[in-house]
Amino acid sequence: MIALASLIGYAVRIYSLCLVAYALLSWLPGGYDSPIGKFLNKVCEPYLRLFDRFNLSIGSIGFNIMVGLFVLNIVGSLLQRILYGL
Questions:
Q1: How far is Cα 34 from Cα 40, in angstroms, rounded to an integer?
Q2: Which residues pair with 57 in a beta bridge?
Q3: Distance separating alpha carbons of residues 55 and 13, to the nearest angstrom
Q4: What is the pLDDT of residues 5-15, one digit of tens each?
Q5: Under a CB-based contact definition with an 8 Å cutoff, are residues 9 and 81 in contact?
Q6: Which of 21, 41, 68, 81 is least crowded, fewest Cβ atoms below 10 Å from its Cβ?
Q7: What is the pLDDT of residue 34?
Q8: Of all residues in the chain, what percent are helix, strand and coil, respectively (each to 5)?
Q9: Backbone dihedral angles phi then psi of residue 58, each to the nearest 5 degrees
């Protein structure tokens, strides 16, 4: 179970880095059109669409990625604690 908990921790860290990179690409003109941008779009957008229904924008600033990171890390931490407890 410890190995599975470690694997979940690594997966959460890698996906968190993908979400941060996806957010940073929004500052670059044409960032989403690059091969890396297209890959990150395919990987990150399905998860971030879960938060679209909550209208997490203030003006033109969207907070979907920030909330997505928060939820991802909380759920990952809870899963790790459950698995370490077994």
A1: 10
A2: 62
A3: 26
A4: 999 999 999 99
A5: no
A6: 81
A7: 94
A8: 80, 5, 15
A9: -125, 110
Q: What confidence tens digit (pLDDT) does each residue in 30-86 have?
A: 999 999 999 999 999 999 999 998 988 998 888 999 999 999 999 999 999 999 887
Q: Identify the residue whose tokens are 């938060």.
A: 51
Question: CA 27 to CA 76: how far, in whole Å?
Answer: 28
pTM: 0.90
The pLDDT, as a whole number, for residue 85 is 84
Q: Map residue 61 onto helix, strand or coil.
A: strand
The number of residues in the chain equals: 86
Cβ–Cβ under 8 Å, residues 50 and 30: no
Give the tokens for residue 62.
């969207």
